[in-house]
Design a protein that fits this description.
With 387 residues, this protein is an alpha/beta fold. The protein folds into two domains: 6-12 and 264-386, Aspartate Aminotransferase, domain 1 (Alpha-Beta Complex); 17-262, Aspartate Aminotransferase, domain 2, CATH 3.40.640. 42% of the residues lie in helices and 16% in strands. The protein has 13 helices and 14 strands. It has helices spanning 17-23, 36-50, 64-75, 89-100, 118-127, 151-161, 211-217, 229-236, 247-263, 265-286, 312-323, 349-365, 374-386; strands at 6-8, 56-60, 81-86, 104-109, 133-139, 141-142, 147-148, 166-170, 189-193, 205-209, 289-290, 301-305, 325-329, 338-342. The strands form three sheets. It has a seven-stranded mixed beta sheet, with helices on both faces. The chain has a five-stranded mixed beta sheet with strand order 1-13-14-12-11. A two-stranded antiparallel ribbon has the order 6-7. It is globular.
Length: 387
């Protein structure tokens, strides 16, 4: 098919041409005297994205999944109790990882489409009189269901309960796209990845830890090697890495950070809200619903529920094969029930209108009764009114 594939999944996202150009480099000596001129400013500017002045940022040649493991194994001891609410595929996977690593994982299941239940969290923390819970794992943006949880409220629940547990946040599909305030919200470990809001290829785990969490690194007894924060801290202080870095990714990160900071984080957040809201207006015009319940809708991905007698996989397959559009699939409990439209990263109004038009054609071809042009018209009306 002529033309490129149009990528409307929640990650990996579209990589700007300027970032691709920045990554096209010759290899160089990562032990040279000038390498710190690349790395140290990157670590400094990453802190701006995490919105932390007191925390410390790190770059691992890994993924957001590795970021989960970094947080757990560098600050907790084998058998420590961890609390997590499971309401989607990625909160499920984080919980399963913690179990496989040998932690005592207390899992509370919530309906898929909901987020962290703050009242239940506060009650449970108050019940934990002996402070056996050592960490709370919070999935900020559950990509599988298009749900965003309230991290500020999560911190309030911890503080109201007077509980000292560490607060770790999966921000893989939120940080650099949705408002995130590490210091203000008292986040102890923030985990992100290169392939979403940072507009890079997969392969970079970008993490930041509070001083409270870093103090635990010194006493943590969990075995670790490649993902050891101590090694990173020792090398990073002089502007180096403990092992061979992914140089193209670092140069791409430099350009991606420049783009984000040049646009301004508040404008980045506002843009993602507009793109998401225009998409939500289109979904409503089709007569379809979000998987996310009211108050939880994400600004980086919309999970759209198809009619009960239809299969979302047909919509996804039709969109790809006939219109060269990639949409996100439903995962696990929502497989076949939802398809996902990503509106994250290097996107603008016209990008989303293309996505909405393509989805309309795929919906019609899949036998889902919508009014042709209704979603596009609704989105156009919204984007024009809010430009």
């Amino acid at each position: 098919m002529a033309g490129r594939n149009h990528l409307y999944i929640p990650g990996p996202t579209n990589v700007p041409q300027s970032v691709l150009n920045a990554m096209h480099i010759e290899m160089e000596d990562h032990r040279s005297p000038v390498f710190p001129q690349l790395l140290l400013p990157l670590l400094h500017d990453l802190k701006k994205i995490f919105k932390t002045e007191t925390g410390q940022a790190f770059v691992f040649p890994a993924t957001g999944t590795a970021g989960w493991e970094i947080a757990l194994t560098n600050t907790l001891n084998p058998g420590d109790k961890i609390l997590i609410y499971r309401f989607g595929q990625f909160s499920h996977l984080w919980a399963e990882m913690a179990k496989r690593l040998g932690f005592d994982v207390e899992i509370h299941n919530e309906p898929w489409g909901m987020g962290i239940p703050l009242d239940k969290l506060e009650t449970r923390l108050k019940e934990d009189k002996n402070h056996e819970i050592k960490a709370v794992l919070a999935t900020h943006n559950e990509t599988a269901t298009g749900v965003t949880s309230d991290i500020a409220g999560t911190r309030t629940a911890l503080d109201t309960a007077g509980h000292p547990a560490l607060l770790f946040v999966d921000g893989v599909s939120s940080i650099a796209s949705i408002d995130f305030r590490m210091d203000e919200w008292g986040v102890d470990g923030a985990i992100s990845g290169s392939q979403k809001g940072f507009m890079l290829p997969a392969g970079g785990a970008f993490v930041a830890f509070s001083q409270k969490a870093l103090a635990r690194v010194e006493t943590c007894r969990y075995p670790r090697c490649f993902l050891d924060l101590k090694d990173q801290m020792n090398a990073n202080k002089d502007g180096y890495t403990p092992y061979t870095p992914n140089l193209p990714l670092l140069y791409g990160l430099r350009k991606a950070l420049d783009l984000l900071l040049e646009e301004g984080l508040e404008q980045v957040f506002a843009r993602h809200y507009r793109l998401a809201e225009g998409t939500r207006q289109a979904i409503a015009a089709w007569g379809l619903q979000l998987c996310a319940q009211p108050g939880f809708a994400s600004n980086t991905v919309s999970a759209v529920v198809v009619p009960a007698d239809k299969d979302a996989r047909t919509v996804i397959s039709t969109a790809f094969k006939k219109y060269h559009i990639s949409l996100g699939a439903g995962l696990s409990e929502v497989a076949g029930k939802v398809f996902r439209i990503g509106h994250v990263g290097d996107m603008n109004d016209v990008s989303m209108l293309g996505a909405i038009a393509g989805v309309e054609m795929a919906l019609l071809d899949s036998g889902i009764a919508i009014e042709p042009g209704s979603g596009v018209a609704a989105a156009i009306t919204y984007y024009r009114a809010t430009a």
